[in-house]
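Model: You mentioned two targets. I'll fold them one after the other.
Researcher: Yes, keep them separate.
Model: Target one:
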Amino acid sequence: MSAREDILGRIRSALSDAPAAPPVPREYRTTSELDEEALIHLLVDRLVDYKAQVSVVPAAEVPARVAELLAEARSYVVPAGLDAGWLADVDDGTSTGRAAGAGTERRRVDSASAPLGVAELDGIDAVVTASAVAVAETGTIILDGSPNQGRRAISLVPDHHICVVAATDIAGILPEALRRIDGTRPLTMISGPSATSDIELERVEGVHGPRRLDVIISR
């Protein structure tokens, strides 16, 4: 008997008398009723508290901010469906794309049909993605694997994540955010740069994901 079969067998045995499931309380808040300005302010406050860097810019200034944040990156990766306009101001040298010659390519493109390997991603300095929704109260950004966000691996392996959040995609609280996304998709919830601590409470960054998180809120 496998471990899976053993676990499922125990569950079936425990439920053999078909106990009635108790009702799930639903008295929690479902809306925040904050306006856009208040949502932005709250999200920025939470993200900064988590040691993320945040910029709030007009939509037209997103390309310039992305280029500024990528200025020191030797290489970066983007999902295949990312808005190309966001990269308009980035200097990629003489070539772009995965087929570019060694030593000249800077931008790598990842897709489900042509995924980059983990070792390859580990050698890339930064990643640029969009986002599905953000939760202001918890300072959480949610990616759902859409074409402009890409596979989970590209947002976890490179050391620097640049994430663009549309102001219209900011929800006040989690129940509001969950109503905007498909819960069956591969969700990644990001609350600041990756950080953990050992038994002596020594903070260590970059263990489970990017060490640096730059959020660009586009309004």
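Model: Target two:
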Amino acid sequence: MRIMVGGLAAGSAFGSLTSFVNALSSPYAELGTRFTGTVWAKTAKVLSLLMDAGWCWAALAVGMGWLAGGRALGAATGALSLVAASAAYYATDAYFLGEPFALFAGETLMWSVTGLLFGSVLGAVGATVGRPGLPGLLAALTVPLGAAAQMLVMPPRPHATVTPSVLLAEVVVWTAAVLGAGWAIHRFRVTRRVAGSESGSGSESRSGVGSGAGRA
């Protein structure tokens, strides 16, 4: 129960923060006009490009599922985190735009349903990350490979010109994807090596017991 409340809190914080950095990075938003050209706006632009990406939202659900542990609980927590993130995102958008939340009801409902469906799957995937063997490896590779695939198909380039903010965001994503995939593969190899050594030790022990019994 506590982890599900944590999922709601994390999702709400993530959605609100994403909307906030979007408003801060936009020269067309009332909040953004106050910081246009400053280091705060440039930093917010990089964060906006990262946090708006689908792989980043998927990582939220996977991470909450990993914290939950069990697959059923992970699925529920992942779904709740994305639903809360969607609602908080549009509620914060409405606040910064000075519009009634009712205007965003359609988008909120659509993305909440999407988050409910995909969040449950991604949460279950996250709960599998800690498992040994191939299932754990594939689960751990979900976010890094998803980020790499999105970079190839839909890179964070809102304009034709590649700006320093866009370039930095792409470097961050590729670096994180490589490090994440490398960690997943390293962990898989280590756990397989440990499992193999334990299996070998167990076989030798059983063989020694059998030989001793035969000599007796």
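Researcher: Noted. Anything on target two?
Model: The mean pLDDT is 89.
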